[in-house]
Specification:
Layout (H helix, E strand, L loop, with lengths): L3 E5 L3 H13 L3 E5 L2 H5 L9 E5 L7 H11 L5 E5 L4 H9 L4 E4 L4 H30 L2 H5 L5 H14 L5 E4 L6 H10 L8 E5 L5 H10 L4 E5 L6 H13 L4 E6 L3 H6 L5 H7 L2 E4 L10 H16 L8 H8 L6 H13 L4 H7 L3 H19 L4 H7 L4 H11 L9
Parallel strand pairs: 1-2, 1-3, 3-4, 4-5, 6-9, 6-10, 7-8, 8-9
Helix pairs in contact: 5-13, 7-8, 9-10, 13-15, 14-16, 17-18
C-alpha cells in the first residue's frame, strides 16, 4: 500500500510538525508551503494523498481541492481547519474533500484519517491497474484477475504452458475459475484462432470423445471435471493421445487426480499423460490481499448488469470480506458482489457481528495461509516472509489447525 502524503501549509513550523508526525508513522511526507509548489506534484499518477491547510495566502485549500478534483476526482484531500473554518470544511466535504480535521489535531486522530485515505487511494490505483490490464493486456492479463504474487505466477504459468502445445491439467478449488484459465491457455496458444470446445467429462462416450476431437480440430478441446470421465472413454482417450490428435486437449479437475489414479478410480497412464503440464489455481483463502480488488471489480460488473450505479464500498465491509475463508472462491465472491449491489450484503454483516478478536483471528489465519501458499508450503520460508520467529509461526499454525503440507504443489 502507498504511504506517500503531500502536506501543504504556509506555516513552516506546522509543516515540520506534520512531517515529523507522518514520518514517525512510517509515511513518506512531502512538505510544501503553497498551492503553487504543490501543483506540479498533483497528477493522476500520484500514489499518495494530500493533507492541506484551509487558509493560506493566495490560493487556499478550497482552490487546491477544486484543482485536485479536476485532475483526479479519486485523489483524497484531507483539509486542516481552524475553529472558525468548520462550516467551510463541511462545504468542502460536499465538494469532494475526503475528510477534515480541526487544528490542533492529535497525532492519533490525524493518522487514523490519513491511513483510511491511503487505503482508499491504494484501492483506486489497484482498480485502475486492473482495468488497464483488462483493456490492453493479453488474455492472461484480461481474464485472470488478482494482483497478488500468486496470481502473477499463475498468469506467467499460463503463458508458459500455452506455447508448448502439450496437454494441460488445470487444477484448483471449486469456483476458482478452472475453465476460464483453460480458455486463457487456448487463446494464448498457437491454436488460439481455432475453436475452443468445452464439454463436461461425465457421461462422455468413446464415440462422443472422437466427435468432439473432430469438432475441435485446429483448436482446443477442454473436458471439465476429468475425474468423472467413464473408464472406457479413458482408455479411448489415452489411445487417441498416443496416436496423435488434430485438437489440443486441456482438462480440468477439482479432485486430486493423482489420488484418484492411486485409488484405481482413474487410469494411471492417462493421468501421467495429462499431468505433463499442470497449472494450479490458488484458492482465495491463500491470497486474501486480492479480495478488495476482486470484489470492487465484481461490484462494478454487477452494477452494470443491473443497470444501476455502483455503490461505494466501505473499508469496514472489505475488511469483513477479507476475514472470511471463501470456500466457493471467485464464484462465491461474485455472488456476494451481486447481493451487495442489490442491498443484501449478509456475509459482511455476519462477519461484522463477530467481536474484534474474532475478526482479527480470521484475518490472521488468512494471512498465514496466504504466506504458506506463496512459499509452496515451506513453513520456514513463510515465517521469514511474515517476519515471525519460527516458534511463534508454528504456534499460530497449531492454533488455527493449519498444515503446511496442504499448501505444497
Amino acid at each position: 500500500m502507498t504511504n506517500r502524503v503531500l502536506v501543504v501549509d504556509d506555516d513552516a513550523a506546522v509543516r515540520a510538525a506534520l512531517g515529523q508526525t507522518l514520518e514517525l508513522a512510517d509515511c513518506d511526507a512531502i512538505t510544501v508551503g503553497s498551492f503553487v509548489a504543490a501543483k506540479d506534484l498533483i497528477t493522476t499518477d500520484f500514489d499518495g494523498v494530500i493533507l492541506s491547510d484551509m487558509r493560506m495566502p493566495g490560493r487556499d485549500g478550497f482552490h487546491l481541492l477544486r484543482y485536485v478534483r479536476e485532475v483526479d476526482g479519486d485523489l483524497p484531500v484531507i483539509l486542516l481547519t481552524g475553529e472558525g473554518d468548520i462550516p467551510m470544511a463541511v462545504q468542502a466535504m460536499g465538494e469532494g474533500a475526503f475528510d477534515f480535521l480541526e487544528k490542533p489535531c492529535a497525532s492519533v486522530d490525524l493518522m487514523a484519517v490519513v491511513r483510511r485515505a491511503l487505503k482508499t487511494r491504494a484501492l483506486v490505483r489497484e482498480n485502475r491497474a486492473l482495468k488497464s490490464r483488462l483493456e490492453s493486456g493479453d488474455p492472461a492479463a484480461r481474464m485472470i484477475f488478482g494482483t497478488s504474487p500468486q496470481m502473477e505466477e499463475l498468469r506467467a504459468r499460463a503463458r508458459g504452458v500455452a506455447a508448448t502445445g502439450a496437454e494441460v491439467l488445470v487444477t484448483g478449488a471449486p469456483g476458482g475459475g478452472i475453465s476460464k484459465v483453460a480458455e486463457v491457455i487456448h487463446l494464448m496458444s498457437p491454436r488460439g484462432q481455432g475453436a475452443f470446445v468445452k464439454r463436461p467429462a461425465a457421461g462422455l462416450t468413446p464415440d462422443g470423445f472422437a466427435d468432439l476431437c473432430r469438432e475441435a480440430a485446429g483448436g482446443s478441446l477442454y473436458l471439465d471435471e476429468i475425474a468423472a470421465l467413464p473408464s472406457e472413454t479413458q482408455y479411448a482417450m489415452l489411445e487417441a493421445l498416443e496416436q496423435g490428435l488434430e485438437a489440443r486437449v486441456l482438462v480440468g479437475s477439482v479432485a486430486d487426480l493423482a489420488e484418484e489414479a492411486a485409488q484405481g478410480r482413474f487410469l494411471p497412464d492417462l493421468f501421467y499423460r495429462l499431468d505433463v503440464m499442470r497449472v494450479r489455481i490458488p484458492a482465495l483463502s491463500e491470497r486474501p490481499e486480492d479480495i478488495p480488488v476482486l470484489f470492487s471489480h465484481y461490484v462494478a460488473q454487477a452494477a452494470e448488469q443491473a443497470g444501476i450505479a455502483a455503490p461505494d464500498i466501505p473499508q469496514e465491509h472489505l475488511a469483513a470480506l477479507m476475514a472470511q475463508d471463501w470456500p466457493g472462491n471467485a464464484r462465491s465472491l461474485m455472488s456476494a458482489a451481486m447481493r451487495f449491489v442489490l442491498g443484501m450484503p449478509e456475509e459482511a454483516a455476519q462477519s461484522a457481528e463477530l467481536g474484534l478478536a474474532e475478526q482479527l483471528a480470521q484475518v490472521e489465519r488468512s494471512l498465514l495461509i496466504a504466506a504458506l501458499g506463496r512459499q509452496n508450503g515451506h513453513a520456514s520460508a513463510a515465517a521469514k516472509a511474515l517476519k515471525l520467529p519460527r516458534k511463534t509461526f508454528y504456534d499460530k499454525l497449531a492454533r488455527y489447525g493449519i498444515r503446511p503440507e496442504d499448501y505444497r504443489r
